[in-house]
Amino acid sequence: NCALRLSSVWSLVNTQVSKSAADPNLWWKQEVQSHCSRSDQWLVIDRKVYNITQWAKRHPGGIRVISHYAGEDATEAFTAFHPDLKWVQKFLKPLLIGELAATEPSQDRNKSATIIQDFHTLRAKVESEGLFRARPSFFCFHLGHILLLEALAWLIIWVWGTSWTLTLLSAFLLATSQLQAGWLQHDFGHLSVFKKSSWNHVLHKFTIGHLKGASANWWNHRHYQHHAKPNVFSKDPDVNMLHLFVIGKTQPVEYGIKKIKYMPYHHQHQYFFLVGPPLLIPIYFHIQIMRSMISRHDWVDLACSLSHYLRYLCCSVPLYGLLGSMLLISFVRILESHCFVWVTQMNHLPMNIDHEKHQDWLSMQLHATCNVKQSPFNDWFSGHLNFQIEHHLFPTMPRHNYHLVAPQVRALCDKHGIPYQVKTMWQGFADVFRSLKNSGDLWLDAYLHK
Asked: Are strands 371-372 and 40-45 parallel, antiparallel or unpaired?
């Protein structure tokens, strides 16, 4: 019997080899998975195999986001990120080197074929319902209220003076305007406003550059990695804590076992308030943005960014002088940074954070995200990112439609036993603190006892 089984295995191997030799355009999953190094990258989209080694360097979203799928099936990510699939296909044709062998399954690794098919069906249904079509009036109104907030902030101190009370009021209005401009640039950056990607790109550069003083290319290269592999170490830049914090359940134990102690991590839930919310935008992001624009020679982004600061100085220097203007904008950035950090982290930091697990799109996004209950204030304050689940599943969907697709997503999750978490905003804030404390305790236990 053993000899018979060995003979059968050898026969199957010979059959596969002969098929591969007979048709060099057919590939096995194992072969594709072996091409995942920096200098040799293949991926699969709709069963077709592409060699992206050279193209990755020219990828508009950056080399890293596409490289994160090297050796994998990238069909779901490709569909999620590109609103016009037919237009993008022309860039893929020169990269095509074959397709998967007929005997190979469409899904790979730990991905569920049933979940993938059901999510594909849901996406087709959502598209047929027109939920990927934006309402121009919504985004025009949003832009208008951003400009109105900023104009009101300057008008108050120009007309009634620069007392401490009026200056604080003006700073809060400017910070609110900056926060809301951040959500609007996020809409353009995800190509969710206009049908033509080029229009989104132009408005994205204007909003993030002139209105906020940041860089569109920096944002694209960073943020799309987060969406491609959320909460995955070494692939999602948002979980790269620069050794300031240990997060999740895996990293603290790894650091503790290796006796890594860059910071007193068992106190990280306390010093988070000093180095997290107040410093992310005014220090860390600002340094990253400037270094990115200069090193990549993004002169258009740099010009847009400088136009923002020039406009700000023209409004503030006659009132506060140069030093006072710098102090005011620093305070505005700190206020904005607090809001930004709490809004973005309440959906992700308390969720599963781990190394690559090669999950299907639905499972991966649901394990890394959660929602915050809907209300007019929550929708406005968070830029509709209280629907973080729907945003991650459908990043090109206009945000005003998230609440319409949410019940369908929840039903799909219930069908497959995937947790769909919804909490209040205050619970979300508390979970950030609690998750940091729990991770710190895990690190201390591993550091002392393992």
From this structure: unpaired
Q: Which of 103-117, 142-156, 317-331 has the lowest mean pLDDT?
A: 103-117
Tell me which residue of 443, 234, 241 sits closest to 341, measured CA to CA. Answer: 241
Q: How far is CA 329 from CA 193, 282, 289, 419, in A?
A: 29, 9, 17, 42
Backbone angles phi, psi at 371, to 5 degrees: -105, 160
Rama region for 354: left / alpha / beta (φ>0; ψ in -120 to 50; rest)? beta
pLDDT (tens digit per residue) in 351-405: 999 999 999 999 999 999 999 999 999 999 999 999 999 999 999 999 999 999 9
Distance, in Å, from the CA atom of 295 to the CA atom of 310, rounded to the nearest integer, reads 22
Nearest to 439 by CA among 226, 284, 277, 264: 264
For the stretch 9-25, pLDDT in tens is: 344 344 444 344 446 68
Reduced 3-state DSSP string for the chain: CHHHHHHHHHHHHHHHHHHHHHCCCEECHHHHHCCEECCEEEEEECCEEEECCCHHHHCCCCHHHHHCCCCCECHHHHHHHCCCHHHHHHHHHHHEEEEECCCCCCCCCCCCHHHHHHHHHHHHHHHHCCCCCCCHHHHHHHHHHHHHHHHHHHHHHHHHCCCHHHHHHHHHHHHHHHHHHHHHHHHHHCCCCCCCHHHHHHHHHHHHHHHCCCCHHHHHHHHHHHHHCCCECCCCHHHCCCCCCCCCCHHHHHHHHCCCCCCCHHHHHHHHHHHCCCCHHHHHHHHHHHHHHHHCCCHHHHHHHHHHHHHHHHHHHHHHHHHHHHHHHHHHHHHHHHHHHHHHHCCCCCCCCECCCCCCHHHHHHHHCCEECCCHHHHHHCCCHHHHHHHHHCCCCCHHHHHHHHHHHHHHHHHHCCCCCEECHHHHHHHHHHHHHHHHHHHHHHHHHC
CB 341 within 8 A of CB 276: yes
User: Residues 293, 205: contact at Cβ < 8 Å?
Assistant: no
Long-range contacts of range 54-63, CB-CB < 8 Å, 24 or more positions apart? 55/91, 55/95, 60/220, 61/220, 61/221, 61/224, 62/220, 62/221, 62/224, 62/225
Residue 317's CB is within 10 A of a number of other CB atoms, namely 14
pTM, to two decimals: 0.92
- Tokens linked to 219: 């944002």
Q: Which of 322, 360, 441 is nearest to 123 (CA)?
A: 360
